[in-house]
Structures are given as C-alpha cells and as structure tokens.
C-alpha cells in the first residue's frame, strides 16, 4: 500500500500522477478535510497533523508515504521522516530548480500558501537552486479553499487571479511555479492568462517518478484505491469527477472511510 495525504483535495493531482505511473499499486488517499486549509495554520499545528496522519497510514501497512502538500512538506516532512525511519517518505516542494533552469528572463515567481511562502524550506530551496535568478514569492490566500469548494469562476476570483498574473508577468517572470498541489486544478484558469509569456511549473509528475523509484514491493498490488477523509469522506468520490479525474473511480473499492485521526 502507498499512502498519499493532503489537507484536502489538492493532493488528488499527485494521486493521479502516481496512479498513472504505478497502475498495479494499491493506493490510499487521505484528505484532512476537518482541518483544511493548512496555509493559514501555525507550523506547530501542521506538524501535529502530519505526525498523526503519518502514524495512521503506517498503521494501515503503507510501505511508502507521500506528503502531497507543499505546506505540510515545508513544515513537517523532516519530522515525519525522523518519526518513521523504516518507511520512505516523499515530500512535495515547489519546482524552483526546474523553473530557475528554464528561465530566460532570470526571473521566476512561486505561487504559494501563506505558510509555504514564509517557510525556511522554501527560502533554502531558493538559495540552493536559484542562484542568479530573481524569485518573486507570491502568497495566494484563499486559493486552496476556492479549489476545495470548486468555486473558481466567480467574477471577483477571476479578476483577482488575472490581476496577480498580470503583475507577475509585468515584473518579468517567465516561469510560474505552482507551489501548492491545489493550484494544479487552477491550470484551466491560469494557462490562458500566461500563454505566450510564461510557463506553469507543476511537480506532480516528478513526485510520481520519485514515488515509483522508492516504491519497491509497494508497487505490486491489485491496483485498488481507498479514499479516506477526516470529515465528509463521501465528497471525495464526487470530487474525482468534478476535477476531471473520474477515471480514478474505477480503482476505488467502492467506499470512503472516515479517518479518525
């Protein structure tokens, strides 16, 4: 079993990439919907949730755990690895390195939650992988919540996104890093706004390749998918179709579980 978790439905973008890469793996996805979003939360709170969920998934015999959340990775992935030294843990980090390498203008932008934007882990990524490149870190409060509710086409939100994109493009950014797994589901809105001027950088496929490399025996199963949530688990299955991931429903066991974590 491979365990994948996020604060909500954003990590379904990572789940989908892993499901494509490992078609026979048994997967479980846990959404911490009782506490979504993580972005405005304190590091201490996020660390507590990550450790609790990690132990929960380990107790379900997961041989690999994927933290499909940039905010949780930044705040707590090292702590989780120390707590579960016998289980490989894969985190999700903003694609600063590929963006910096691809940038011609030598200026990139990272779209992130408030927590990720202020994190030392992001600052270290920028120091290590963006030498000579100007990095604009752009907090996007409320965006993850918009994805959770799939409330993406209201005039005020579209106007907010358009204004933010225009400002970053006018500043010369030619690579826009999606620094939250929820933001993958904003691509239909973002892509037309930046077309011809910048590229969107999403790391879901890179995370799937790392998971594939580390999976070992966990990659061999019956290709089943179990959905879990700490609140409103029945909404997860409906979210698959709403986010264009209806094909994943074929791997489901036909049940969603309330995870008491």
Overall, the morphology is: globular
What is the β-strand count?
A: 10
Distance from first to last alpha carbon? 18 Å
Which structural class do the helices and strands define? Answer: alpha/beta
Q: Number of helical runs?
A: 11
Can you tell me the residue ranges where pLDDT is under 50 for at least 5 consecutive residues?
A: none
What is the CA-based Rg, rounded?
18 Å
Strand percentage lies at: 15-25%
Q: Tell me the helix content.
A: 40-55%
Mean pLDDT: 95
Biggest sheet character:
6 strands, parallel
The largest beta-sheet arranges its strands as 4-3-1-2-9-10
Provide the succession of SSEs: EHEHEHEHEHHEHHEHEHEHE
Describe this structure in words.
The protein is α/β, with parallel strands linked by helices and 261 residues long. It has eleven helices and ten strands. The strands form two sheets. It has a six-stranded parallel beta sheet with strand order 4-3-1-2-9-10, with helices on both faces. Strands 6-5-7-8 form a four-stranded parallel beta sheet, sandwiched between helices. Strand 3, helix 3 and strand 4 form a beta-alpha-beta unit. The radius of gyration is 18 Å and the shape is globular. The mean pLDDT is 95.
